Amino acid sequence: MSSPTGLPLPPTGGILTVREHVNDNSVSYSWLQISASAVIEASPDRVWETLINLESYSEWNPFVRSADVCNAAKHRLDDQTLSAGKHVLLKVHMPPSMDDTRSSRMTLCEVTHVDHENRRVCWGSHELPKWVLYSDRWQSVIPADPEGRTSKYETREVMYGFLAFIVKLFYTKPLQEGFDAMAKGLKSKSESL
Q: Signal sequence span per UniProt (predicted)?
């Protein structure tokens, strides 16, 4: 199954759902799916540039307050360009907030896919064995009208492994709030440029 953007997305409904793995087309099971979208009154290129400009996240993103391209040892790289094989260190607020005096979580994710032509990116948590916890978060920007003056931002994270069930029990609501807040923030920032 895929979204209108061509991203592999799992079907909705039920606790266990089938998910296609992008890299090897294997089938596995997800325990948790979080998604959000927004129609944005800005060109897809403008929205994409805002989304991949990690250094601007503190200006508009109440969920991911900062994102730094780094290596696996969490050392920030001079080159902050997203590319497959690099990592991103995310400072996450749950619940989302622009107040940086609040406590936050630091999350290391591996960048697995960056497609500038089709405006989509994927990163995920791959530090633990897949049976423990594994996640992928896809984000994409597509034209929402034939003239390309408006865009649709779409994001979905899929988690599986036994810890995903624990995440589902305790973090579904704050994660959904975060995804929704990020989509809203991206809309506001992109439309203001």
A: none
